[in-house]
Amino acid sequence: MGRNEELIKKIQEHAFRIDSYDDLDAIINEAGDADYVLLGEASHGTSEFYSARAELTKRLIKEKAFSFVAVEGDWPACFTVNQYVKGYKEGTAREALQDFNRWPTWMWSNREVLDFVTWLKNYNAANGKRAGFYGLDVYSLWESMEEMIRQLEKIAPQDVEAAKKAFSCFEPFDRRPENYAISASYYGEDCTEEVVKVLIELQKNRKKYDQDEEADLNLEVNSLVMLNAERYYRAMAKGGPDDWNIRDTHMVTALEKIMASHGAGAKAVVWEHNTHIGDARATDMADEGLVNVGQLLRETYGDRVYTVGFGTHRGSVTASREWGSKVEEMTVPEAQIGSWEDVLHQAGAFDKYLIFNEKNAQKFNGVLGHRAIGVVYNPEYEHLGNYVPTRVSKRYDAFIFLDKTKALTPMQG
Question: Can you tell me the distance from the alpha carbon of 70 to that of 269, in angstroms, rounded to the nearest whole number?
Answer without folding.
Answer: 6
